[in-house]
Amino acid sequence: MEEVIKLTPDGSTKKAGLLNDLGIAFSHRFERLGKLRDLENAIHVKQQAVDLTPDGNANKAASLNNLGISFSQRYECLGELGDIENAIHVNRQAVDLTPDGHVNKAALLNNLGNAFSCRFERLGELRDMENAIHVKQQALDLTPDGHAHKVAWLNNLGNAFSRRFERLGQLRDIENAICVKQQAVNLNPDGHADKATLLSSLGNAFLRRFEHLGKLGDIENAIHLNRQAAVDLTPNDHASKARWLNNLGGALTCRFGHLGKLEDIDNAILVNRQAVDLTPDGHANKAACLNNLGGAFCDRYEHLGELGDIEDAILVNQQAVDLTPDDHADKARLLNNLGNVLQHRFERLGELRDIENAILVNKHAVDLTPASGHAHKAAWLSSLGSAFFRRYKHLGELGDIEDAILVYQQAVDLTPDGHARKPAWLNNLANAFQSRFEHLGKLGDIENTILLQQQAVDLTPDSHADRAGRLNNLGNAFCSRFGHLGRPKDLMEATVTFKQATENTSSRPLIRYYAACQWATLCSKYQSPSSALDAYTAILGIIPQLVWLGQTVHHRYEELPKIGRTINAAAAMAISVGDLPRAVEWLEEGRSIVWKQILQLRTPLDELHQQRPDLADELSRVSLALDNAGTSNFQNFDWGIKPKSAEEEAQNHRKLAARYEELLQQVRELDGFSSFLRPKKFSELASAARNGPVVVVNVAELRCDALVLCTSGEIVPVPLLTFSYNQAEMLRLQLLSSLQFHEVWVNPNESLTTHPAEEANQDHFISVLADLWSYVVWPILSEIEQALYENAHHSLPHITWCATGALAFLPLHAAGIYRSDNPNINISDFAVSSYTTTLTAMLSSGSKPKQDSTAARSVLIVSQPATPGQRPLEYVLKEVEAIQRYTSPNHTCHLTHESATVGAVWDEMSKHEIIHLTCHGIQEMGDPLRSAFFLYDGQLYLDTLMRLSLKNAELAVLSACETATGDENLPEEAVHLAAGMLAVGYPSVIATMWSTWDPDAPLIADKVYANLLGCCDNPESQKEKLTPAYALHEAVKHLQKEVGEMNFVRWVPFVHFGV
């Protein structure tokens, strides 16, 4: 055709028609392939066609109309305002040139209306939308039923009604939009090329009405229609695929906000990301796609709390803002959303610049929006109010809370009753009044808080994901008024409200947890203990959702600090009412949560395999994949999903966790499996004390108690009447000061403290050990003297400590009154002490068959006197020599220097009952499975070790710095290498609580192995062999004599874990 045009002289009457036809061909190819040069060529030749067509020519209007369509298309691609201005200009000319009765009049009016709609979306001027509706209605009125274009014009008119609804929020506009769009869908036959467009358009109208009224049927329709359009009817190479996917993502995000189902937001992120990837850079819709993706990331962050989601949200929302010119009608919306995600990051990290930036962009969004008559003005005001509110919480400046109340009130006033967002604005305003009440103490503010929160709750459906949060806020308001006025009615109202929030399973677990804690606290203080136990029972049910297998191990550890004290409070309440078995069960359930989750995934399934091999096989596969997904060593396990990116990997992880829970439910429905992998009952836990009493010490703010599990199965309660939570914390800090004074403490997040001790640090060892003796250990020993000795097979009985809170970091095994001039009294005179991380650990260790005490033990010695990249260990060779004095060469393997590689140690471990590691170690607090021992060619991680099958393992000796230190923020989790070796399968572990003196390691090793193995060539010594706990006890006694009993920093750190 281009050759024909070149051969046609400019004066020919056919030239304009040929150019117009060529322009249409270019337009068709652009619509198919989306290549901008085709559109540029279309505009160029169509403009030539218009210029060559004289006014009055019958084809002039058609040529103008075609040119207008191309200007509109280029505007949609590039967003250049001049293009839509040109489109309106030429489309209006085309309409003016066409008489009312002309067959094409309706088409021209429709195209002019579309151009007005586009300019309205860009500039937001209401008269453009009024004009668009007017001319589109004219077009429709001129079009008879059965006309080929009737469907398209119905849809276009519906779009105009939708746009005006978004601006003004008048319900009749969205009702009209749904009505005419439904007519369009009904008139359009299945299989028609436009079907997907019409379905998506109708779906968006349902979505808008859902946002206004909150009726679930509307969002279900929106998702169904958009899924048909985006997935079922549109091929991947279609130019509109991205737009339909974007619409589907928006609908899924909206349903997630209402119902809180994680699957919806995961799917929303996937389809929104596809939409972004399919939209070329420079396309006018790119910013909208980025904005929706950012909104989905933000919503998932609010649900899961993964920092990466809010970082991603900020990134894509900032891109959306940067791509959008200041005069664009969507600029305010994009700025508002960017401000919101900055607020979320501020809440997480507390960096002031985030909230300052949020206030700037949220205020900019408000300033860009007309003072009245704009449907989103209330939303932008509410966001700005939230930014002021958050800065007030951070800085405490009264002006910020005054500003927050002002703009929140404006948002409420602008929002009609019945609007789906009204409860959210009321909730925000109520929170601001609550904060001002806390600041100024004016009764009117708390009265307003309760009034507004009650309205917000009443307007929120029971199934809504935000209902628990609003109930929780209302409960807090009742508590505040009770504290101010002392009315019992407020207390009752608060209790009922917190209970309702706890029981709202549609809401986020964290919100329900907070509500349950408040419920428990009120019941504990003011109501019956039995009602408090109900609240704590609910808390124990929520904790697995907070520390969920679908999250990374690192994230689960981030959630745990808030849980420990609650478990201790729950146990204290159970003890106070005499329900000792429940107290033991709860303390066990709340300790080492993540370790137990990891081990649960590695549970043998032999019994299940006999009854349901298919279920056992799938559970095994899912457990293996989930185990890997939770740690940093993710692998692709071919069970149906192949992760390709970090996002897909995270979603796969959550799907695995959901499937794992489904499989557990199926197993528990089988006969004989109702308690499969559930928390253990006391009847199972009691056997942890079969070899001697186990003392569980609970430290709570309400009370402190010891629960002694006796070999008889009895629980002996020992109230620690003179000990308190605050005292335990003080002793922990005094111990820390002492360790810093002696320069042997390692901050878990820093390197070894080698600088001179600070002047503020003092040596409190004598007073710490004395207080532990007087207030904790002696009251327990005096109460259980008979139980202590009834199972003693040696000269001293054995006792196992399982402490909570700050006591988990204190040396109970060394408690005593130490004097330089008088006889001492301490626990080692009465018993040999061990520690355990959990009762469950003792059950699994104690279930191993007893080994023949006369049989030679095979020992693996791993030594690294000069690990590459680490400081030399001067006394390692002496330590190895000490061990080898008691081991048989035929039963000893020594790996050292370059022979002590990761692979070599791994290969040898399963061949030996005892492993002695004298090398550097590292504790990884964020992910304990990445804790490791430094070997010649790298690190041997606990995660790697846990894949071993150590059936004959008996003892691990960890001669490395602070292998049993733990994390002060996670006292109940035993985040240290000793706990890791117990989890690996060693029933007994010797470790250290802090850095030891290098010369002490050979001496301890010498005495431990002398007592443990005896001299290999001395039959008499073979008969006197001791168990690891007693062997260490005797070794430490010897060290005391060598260095002096008052030299606590030298002998106290050596401890025994396990059986």
UniProtKB/TrEMBL annotation:
For the CHAT domain, which residue ranges apply? 773-1058
Stored SUPFAM superfamilies: TPR-like
Entry-linked Pfam families: CHAT
List the InterPro entries hit by this protein, alphabetically. Answer: CHAT_dom, TPR-like_helical_dom_sf
Classification via Gene3D superfamilies: Tetratricopeptide repeat domain
Name used for this protein in its record: TPR-like protein
Organism, by scientific name, is: Dendrothele bispora (strain CBS 962.96)
